[in-house]
Structures are given as structure tokens and as C-alpha cells.
Amino acid sequence: DSGVTQTPKHLITATGQRVTLRCSPRSGDLSVYWYQQSLDQGLQFLIQYYNGEERAKGNILERFSAQQFPDLHSELNLSSLELGDSALYFCASSVDGRAKGTQYFGPGTRLLVL
Amino acid sequence: GNSVTQMEGPVTLSEEAFLTINCTYTATGYPSLFWYVQYPGEGLQLLLKATKADDKGSNKGFEATYRKETTSFHLEKGSVQVSDSAVYFCALTMMNYGGSQGNLIFGKGTKLSVKP
Question: Which residue from A17, A44, A93, B101 puts its CA 20 to 30 A from A56's CA?
Fold first, then answer.
């Protein structure tokens, strides 16, 4: 158990809909990362937050947004969903968000868009 | 840009065989290098890491050495077990000017199956 929790575990929805994925980092970790794992694209970095502020952005679509709240949990919002958004979404956390640090991954949310 | 290339799988080995999974990287600066492992149905776990050239990371019998001259970080284990069956990901992070950016750039993953 990494100490990172993600909810829900599974999500099935329809095209055009909007969903919210939630992540609680390990106790004491200030930085949260979101990654998308799909068969064709592999594991891709979406976005990073540190202590409530956006720190880095990767291949995140404009239809997707995220935020980190004062209690340090984070939410990833996916809107106008398309079939191709079906993937496993991971959240990871680290103490300070630095390059040498260890990122601890949650179990993921599996999203299926029908 | 920065990238990671690792050998394609799947790799199938018998128990107690020697394992090597090749990983090379392209980076404009001085990356930190990682191996993560993903067991079926689970998230990723850090297996080992190395943050500077010639560092050796090791854990649970796995080893990898950061080779700057060959831009490689190959994963090795002397004697694999059935419980090592998983997908292994090589990854890097780059230090930006402020030292603060730490997002992982992953290779495509190598699936390892160990038969008894």
C-alpha cells in the first residue's frame, strides 16, 4: 500500500459526459501528479501540482483540468469525453515535487467511455 | 526532447534464469533514472533509482547502473522468481533550473513472465 488513495476505482460513462477523479496523497506529501496509461500512448504525464499551485503541464487536453485543494487532495476533471479517453488514470505524490524524489503511485482509476 | 527507450517484450524466462531488460535514454541535461514495476491490477511501485552518473540502484535482487557514456540504465537480476512476473518501466525525470520539476517520462514497458 503506497498510501496514495484514488476514487473511484472504476468508472463507466458515455461520450460527451463529464467525470471527476479524486486523489489523496500520502500524508506529508505536497506534490501531486496525474498520469494517463493507455494501450496506444503508454504512460503519459498530464499535470503536476505543488502545495495547491500548478507546477508543470504535460500532454493534457484542454477538455481536462485539475486542481489541488488546501487539504492537498487533488481532482482531475475530464469533460466532453471521447472513446479515446478510456484509460487508466494514475495519481502519484511526492514530498517536494523535485526531480530526484520518489513518486508514490495510487492504484489508479479505470475509465471506460462507451 | 527527453525520452526513454526500453526493449520490447514480452520476455519469458524460466525460474532462476538471469534477467536483463535494456533501457536507454535521451536527455538534454542530467536526468535521474528510475525503474518502476507494475504487478497485474496494481499501480506502479518504485523498484530502484539512481540520481547521478555511475550510481547503482538496487532492491530485491534487482540492480541497475546509471551509465552516462552509453546513456543506459539496464535492469538486471541474477535469478528471477515466478513472483517477479510483472511489467517493468524505465523512466527519467529532469532537473529544471529551479530543481523543482519532477514529472516522470516513461518507456513503453516490458512485460516479464517467469515460468516455474
Answer: A17
